[in-house]
Specification:
The complex is a heterodimer of chains A (93) and B (345). Chain A has four helices and no strands. Chain A has 93 residues and is mainly α. Chain B has one domain: HUPs (Rossmann fold, 3-Layer(aba) Sandwich). Classes of the chains: A mainly alpha (93), B alpha/beta (345).
């Protein structure tokens, strides 16, 4: 898998990039009603298509691969959960 | 009705009203700046095709007697080509499924019969109640928040609702038949670029749809659950844990002309009553007219721009398709049929 060359140094780097992607691609306005712990499905930010798109972005950008059982909404439904999941995979690699 | 083409990308025709668009000093949009060079597109398509072929092989190697693939088949040119590819290139045992949304062109219905006969493929038609469909269409116009904000980039709200219903129906059939694959006729720009294949975990799908379900019920009424809910017991009874969604047109670099040539050999004929951006649906122009009024761009413009970027559509034709917006007066009959007052728009 082709990796992006920027080195990820911290969870806040991951969070910033994920937030920026979601804001740009899903036209989401982060603020009081939408934060890193907001369930993006519940908030109506992403749908099934959007989730597939998001997974592709996360895998390419952070050079990780999610196995089927990892693609659960509980792992990837909030920015915080995405950061934690990605961080664990990067630390394990 | 011609629309001003004054402010748009110098390459791909996307207008400045498209969400997230930015232009450089030469007038080239950020989507074009980020796109791979046209010369490499062929290789990208080939790589996607190989990946899809491997995924299909992995899902169908067990030699089951049942259907391998449920194909969402509208009778339009793209889904006809997709059906042809799944049958002839991948040699799958397919079930072609047509959802009659109440506005299918008579020619599209004939195309369904002709093509499924030519391909010797099993075919079913499902026609949801027009009472529900019309209510869904009207509410989709009145309450665009029923869909995610980003959905406006890929289709009109009318189309998004219909597509939703079609997608869920296909997955339900896949579960009923234990068919591991669902195929659609989406092209570049209608779905995410990398969505030639999407391996959908059914537990994730159920979770995401639970959220949407309450929204659908709020806007479309309780009857919506009959059409838009993925029953958990269906998932539990099926042997499938995942469904592989494939869009074969995202893996082949073929122009519209080539597609029409290929499917004409099966007896497919052009429709004359579905507007410039559909080859099956007579409601489509209403969706375009309303979408343009609400958001300032043709809902097909991203798909059209992607075809230009991939070298599959010339700019002149792209401009014609993207910027010929039906006037509200031209879609008055569709509005009347579904019970929409155009003065609301």
């Amino acid at each position: 898998m082709e990796a992006n060359s920027t080195i990820i140094t911290s969870g806040s780097d991951i969070a910033d990039e994920v937030r920026a992607y979601i804001a740009d691609h899903f036209l989401a306005d982060f603020g009081p009603d939408l934060n890193y712990d907001t369930d993006l499905f519940v908030a109506g930010v992403i749908d099934s298509f959007g989730f597939a798109e998001l997974v592709v972005f996360l895998e390419k950008r952070f050079n990780v691969h999610f196995e089927g059982e990892e693609l659960t909404a509980d792992n990837l439904n909030t920015v915080s959960n995405m950061v934690n999941t990605i961080r664990k995979k990067l630390d394990a690699s | 009705m011609p629309v001003s083409t004054a402010t748009m990308c110098v390459a791909c025709v996307l207008p400045d009203s498209f969400p997230g668009i930015e232009f450089d000093s030469q007038g080239l949009c950020n989507f074009c700046q980020d796109a791979p060079p046209v010369a490499t597109v062929g290789e990208l398509f080939r790589a996607l095709k190989e990946k899809m072929a491997a995924a299909i092989e992995a899902r169908t190697s067990s030699g089951s007697d049942g259907y391998d693939c449920i194909v969402a088949y509208s009778g339009g040119k793209d889904s006809t080509y997709a059906l042809k590819v799944m049958m002839e290139t991948y040699r799958l045992n397919c079930l072609a499924v047509t959802i009659d949304n109440g506005f299918m062109s008579a020619q599209a219905k004939k195309n369904c019969d002709t093509v499924t006969s030519a391909l010797s493929v099993d075919h079913v038609v499902f026609k949801p109640s027009s009472d529900f469909m019309n209510k869904m269409y009207v509410q989709s116009v009145r309450s665009p928040e029923v869909h995610t904000k980003a959905a406006i980039k890929r289709a009109s709200n009318v189309c998004n609702s219909c597509i939703n219903l079609i997608n869920i129906h296909m997955i339900k059939l896949a579960l009923q038949h234990d068919a591991p694959i669902v195929a659609g006729g989406y092209i570049g720009g209608q779905v995410p670029k990398d969505a030639a294949m999407m391996d959908i975990d059914l537990s994730v799908l159920i979770k995401s749809r639970q959220t949407m379900q309450s929204r659908y019920t709020d806007f479309f009424g309780e009857t919506a659950m009959k059409y838009l809910r993925l029953p958990e017991n269906l998932v539990e009874r099926s042997r499938l844990k995942n469904v592989l969604i494939v869009n074969p047109l995202l893996t082949v670099q073929v122009s519209e002309e080539q597609i029409i040539d290929d499917i004409s050999a099966l007896g497919w004929k052009r429709t004359l009553d579905t507007g410039k951006n559909s080859s099956n649906c007579r409601l489509n122009d209403l969706g375009i007219a309303v979408h343009h009024r609400q958001y300032g761009f043709n809902p097909y413009v991203f798909e059209i721009s992607e075809q230009v970027r991939n070298g599959l559509l010339d700019r002149k034709t792209a401009l014609e398709k993207a910027y010929s917006i039906p006037a509200l007066s031209e879609v008055a009959w569709q509005a009347k049929q579904i019970g929409l007052n155009l003065d609301e728009i």
